[in-house]
Specification:
This protein has a six-stranded mixed sheet with strand order 6-7-5-8-9-10. A four-stranded parallel sheet has the order 2-1-3-4, with helices on both faces. The chain is built from 15 helices and 13 strands. It is an alpha/beta fold and 420 residues long. The protein is elongated and about 95 Å long. Helix 6 crosses helix 7. The longest helix has 31 residues. The protein has three domains: 181 residues, 3-Layer(aba) Sandwich (Rossmann fold), CATH 3.40.50.11060; 167 residues, Rossmann fold (3-Layer(aba) Sandwich); 51 residues.
Length: 420
């Protein structure tokens, strides 16, 4: 049986932003097997340092909680240990905050060794300063995914680890994660040595990044190994990379990264930095946006804040407004996004145009050349066919006339045969 809960939030900004956050918190709770019975809001400029909301509002919440017979309260901001304790002194009920809910979802979705390590580190760092306040509340919550140790909720993990060894556990997990980070760095170095450009998909959770990757793969001549796509928050936490190879010999690695969400816990950003480094090392970022979401601008801002936090700079960004098939009216791209495109990944709309835009960035330094190649240099012709964009070939009496777009490296190799 799912838990029943009341959501509690402070409207510290505007009604539009607050309503959006509370709606999203409800979706997060549903993903965490918690049924939302009511949503309570208090208008206040600052959080009450003792009880989050004012004491009078908390007494009101207590009456509503007893009437609705709910199991928990879920607060829209991260709570301190003392706030959790003070709230539970007034209302004898399980208390969660937004950070805990997100961590539980990540815990239930993690399947690879790297993702499990990252989520475990984030959960332990979250629990460490809250051991006393969380002891009772977390012991009532069970994890929602998987078997074995990593299928258990953060509460069970807390009961197994005392204050002395949590830091040791975090240190051990960080060491394990560092080994995986080194492996990932070697993979990136190998790709760079092969001169294969890298494109990273990023964006808000459930914006359609995986669907976009799969749509691009349909245009590839390489093996079409698709990734999981599902209409849900944080459908996957795994970083998936695929090779896209086109008929003109252009190719690139495209990587799908974990999605973001408003108020993404700092612990998760820190823990996932080794994975998110894929973005900082890319040649192009494709920022996928759910154009059908009325709050898409808030989602863009949230994603850009996280990208800034992980150190993304001086990398070209293509804003891709997805899910236009869900809109009744024509979607006008905001004028501030000059390098942008509207698509429907599900319906394959404008995917070819997206590929052209990707190529225009990745291969902008290609030289358009005419080559007078001697018949004795057929090995160079084969190399051009395999590694360059050959536009036209004419077999003349004394030489082969080739029109092609070539990389700087290839241009240096064939410089003596290029028409000046």
């Amino acid at each position: 049986m799912n838990q029943k809960a009341i959501l509690v939030g402070l409207n510290k900004t505007t009604k539009e932003i607050h309503d959006y956050e509370m709606k999203e918190l409800k979706e997060l709770c549903i993903a965490c097997n918690i049924d939302v019975e009511d949503i309570i809001t208090q208008n206040a400029n600052v959080i009450n340092p003792k009880t989050y909301v004012h004491r009078g509002k908390l007494e009101e919440i207590k009456i509503i909680a007893e009437t609705l017979e709910v199991d928990a309260l879920v607060f829209n901001d991260e709570l301190t240990a003392s706030q959790i304790s003070n709230i539970q002194k007034i209302i004898d009920i399980t208390v969660y905050d937004r950070t805990y809910i997100i961590l539980e979802i990540f815990k239930s979705r993690a399947t690879t060794k790297e993702a499990i390590l990252q989520v475990d580190i984030a959960s332990l760092k979250y629990m460490l300063p809250r051991l006393s306040g969380l002891r009772e509340g977390l012991s009532r919550q069970r994890g929602t995914g998987g078997n074995g140790a990593h299928g258990r909720g953060a509460g069970e993990t807390k009961l197994e680890l005392d204050r002395r060894n949590i830091n040791d556990r975090i240190s051990y997990l960080n060491n394990q994660l560092e080994l995986l980070k080194q492996e990932r760095a070697l993979q990136r170095k190998k790709r760079k040595n092969n001169n294969i450009p890298v494109v990273c998909l990023t964006g808000y959770t459930n914006s359609g990044k995986s669907s976009t990757l799969n749509a691009l793969m349909e245009e590839s001549t390489a093996i079409k190994k698709k990734v999981l796509e599902k209409n849900m928050l944080f459908a996957t936490l795994e970083t998936s990379s695929r090779l896209v190879k086109l008929n003109n010999n252009h190719e690139f690695i495209i990587t799908d990264t974990v999605g973001f969400v408003s108020k993404l816990p700092h612990q998760l950003v820190e823990a996932f930095k080794s994975t998110l480094e894929e973005i900082t090392e890319s040649d192009l970022i494709i920022h996928v946006i759910d154009a059908s979401n009325p709050n898409y601008q808030l989602q863009i801002d949230t994603t850009n804040e996280v990208l800034k936090e992980i150190g993304v700079e001086n990398i070209p960004v293509l804003y891709v407004f997805n899910k236009i098939d869900l809109l009744e009216d024509y979607f006008y791209i905001p004028p501030q996004y000059l390098y942008a495109l509207r698509i429907s990944a599900i319906n394959n709309k404008n995917i070819k145009l997206l590929l052209e835009m990707i190529e225009s960035v990745l291969y902008k330094n290609e030289a358009h050349v005419l080559i007078n190649l001697p018949y004795t240099k057929m090995d160079i012709l084969n190399s051009l066919k395999n590694n360059s964009n050959v536009i036209n070939i004419e077999y003349q009496n004394d030489y082969i006339l080739i029109e092609a777009k070539v990389s700087d490296k290839m241009k240096m190799e064939i410089d003596e045969y290029i028409q000046k």
